[in-house]
Amino acid sequence: MIRLKGIAAAPGIKTGLAYKIGREDFSIPKQSIKPEEIPLQIQLFEEALIQTRREIIDLQKRIASDLGQEEAEIFDAHLLVLEDRMLIEEVISRLKKDNLSVAFIFSEVLKKYIDVFSKIEDEYLKERIADINDVGRRILRNLLGKEQKKSLVDLKEKVVVVSHDLSPSDTAAMHKQSVCAFITDIGGKTSHTAIMAKALEIPAVVGTEQATQIIKSDDFLIVDGSMGIVIVNPDEETLEIYRQEELKLKGLSDKYLLDKDLPALTKDGKIVEIVANIEFPDEVPTVKLHGGLGIGLYRTEFFYMNRKDLPTEEEHFQAYKYVAQEMKPYPVIIRTLDLGGDKFLSQFEIPKEMQPFLGWRAIRFCFTKPDIFKLQLRAVLRASVFGKLKLMYPMISGIEELRQANNILEECKKELKEKRVAFDENIEVGAMVEVPSAALTADILAKEAHFFSIGTNDLIQYALAVDRTNEKVAYLYEPAHPAVLRMVKNVIDAAHQNNIWVGMCGEMASDETFILLLLGLGLDEFSMPSLAIPQIKHLIRSISMEEAKKIADEAMSLTSAKEVNAFMQRKLKEVKR
Amino acid sequence: MPVFKKKITVMSKQGLHARPAALFVQVANKFDSQITVSRESEKVDGKSIMGILMLGAEEGSVIYLEAEGDDAQQAILELEKVIVKEE
User: Fold this and answer.
1) CATH superfamily entry for domain A259-576
2) Predicted complex ipTM
């Protein structure tokens, strides 16, 4: 039994067998296949070989023109390995004999050759092992590229995906039917992978640093996404403790679910809005199921992921229209494209930046790509007649940017008017407050925005100078830091003085520790993963505004994050009792 | 089916590796004959780069070529040229 400590990224406890993916090694899970699947496996193998051949020839052509013919000839050996009769025949004959997946057999055969070559005393040949490795990886990658998603879906038992890293699009491709939890080596609490895991309601532990080294495929794992703990091959006793815990958690969430439709009304009669963060239109039923009365953050980057071409205005429009209609009469806040930072899209050539979070991202990116920005704005405007849509710009750092974005919006409105296309003339437009300069000038921004939504994930990392994806400094990422609390208070006060409402769509808005504090500061709207809604509503119903204000006042007078956390935990316990 | 055999000493400084091996396999694949190469107790398919590399034939190694098929004689002649050719 081994215990691994990581960062709790998405809550819940699950047990299951490890399934390692990604990473460029040859540890492919040993997966059985049925005899009737053999022809398909052979076909997959052949397709992977053809695809690999195409890649190598392209590469060879490029190298021939960039470096010269002689350098390009190196790839002749690669092609020979690729088309090698012995290799191919051995894979196919074992496939017919062993009833194991082609990826697994290929990796085994390749390993065997590499082993033999490594033992031969010849420097030159040792170097050639690198070539075989290279070709082998290419083939395997193409094999898995075709096979992986399919096999994840086809698995009979749910698995725990273990990977060095998962891109948001990897995570998005996972199905709840086949993945019960996942674990990564890197990443932090607010990495987009973690956010996706929450949206999909898949427990996750990230930032374990060594999961892929310690865990082997088919190890039995307990994943505690609430505490950030992974237990590899647990003993009976430990397993029993976790099984009990798993049942208890489920019981608790069922209890909250019962009264999910009661309003988030404080004991003294103040209603706050509890709404959902979503990525995909498909999540709308989940939002409703958990009693979410609106969408506080509809992320739109996913239109651009897992594809090579650009989404059309019609695709945007259809998605927005659907969500608007489904959520009607409740509001849906669409955040315009927030690309950059740790979200990269394959359609655009974005140079590698030293500090991507401080770089060419979000609204800054949109300003330099007005076609893409306007296409999205037009789609939102057109869909606005089908429900209650609102627009929100990410990464606004000052009034100039808000004005510039609004000017572009006005152009879009004008275009639509000229074409006599209907849209909601009074569509509300807000700014996401996630840059300290915006938080500090909230009084100025409030005069030209209809609402604010505080994006705490970025605000915290900018305010505290902590890269939230760097596990070495992740411990400094602290929502309870007085600097963060002061900024949040400043934004709420400035909004209210200017008669606009203010919400929050970062992780902090669904963290039980801070709900009472935020309520006391006067936050009007809390936007969170659907899963968290019933529990947060329940908590809000357990307190009065008067009490919450007192708690907030006292919390604001404390001097360190540690004190604030301890104080809030104590208050939370009192209220829950 | 005609069968031709030939004992050859590898002359290339790189042995029967890398580019010479690649060239050997390319030439072997031009022929219809079945081609095998053996060295000491190892016997491999002459049309397979993995097989040839597996032989670990360095400069000075003695190998046996065997071709079986209608174009066997021509195959042995051309393959011999590849092996004895010094780079």
Assistant:
1) Phosphoenolpyruvate-binding domains (3.20.20.60)
2) 0.70
